[in-house]
Design goal:
The protein is mainly α. The chain has one domain (32-121). Helix content is 74%, strand content 0%. Helix 3 (58-74) packs antiparallel against helix 4 and helix 4 crosses helix 5 (103-121). The longest helix is centred in the first third of the chain and has 20 residues, at 8-27.
Length: 122
């Protein structure tokens, strides 16, 4: 309801990406210690939504917990999300809650699984 309905939002986003390309070489000058406070702030804002997770439902709680724990333990947002998506798909298939509407999540889980197997083999 609050999204951009005209093509102007896409144009502005494209222009901002062009500006980001020009600024990218200068990002390396910023030490990682300077980015830590911003990451801590973003992490704390993300933690505010944890109360909305239905912790009494294992089909929701287990993938959410794995994602929440594995993002900092693996130092990678992609790995944490990957494990959470794989767990979600496995739980839904194992409990018979497979739905055709969620085909993209199952495909994403399979791709993450292939990625983890490939990274583990190399």
């Amino acid at each position: 309801m609050a999204g951009g309905r005209s093509g102007i939002t896409a144009i502005v986003t494209g222009l901002l990406f062009l500006g980001a390309i020009a600024a990218a070489p200068f990002v390396g000058f910023v030490p990682t210690a300077a980015t830590a406070p911003a990451l801590i702030l973003v992490g704390s804002l993300m933690l505010a939504t944890i109360v909305e997770v239905r912790w009494t439902e294992p089909l929701v709680a287990v993938p959410a917990f794995l994602t929440l724990v594995l993002i900092p333990l693996t130092y990678s947002i992609a790995n944490g999300l990957g494990f959470g998506i794989i767990a979600w798909a496995i739980l839904h298939v194992a409990t018979g809650k497979f739905r055709r509407q969620d085909w993209l999540l199952y495909l994403l889980a399979a791709l993450f699984l292939v990625r983890f197997i490939y990274l583990g083999a190399s």
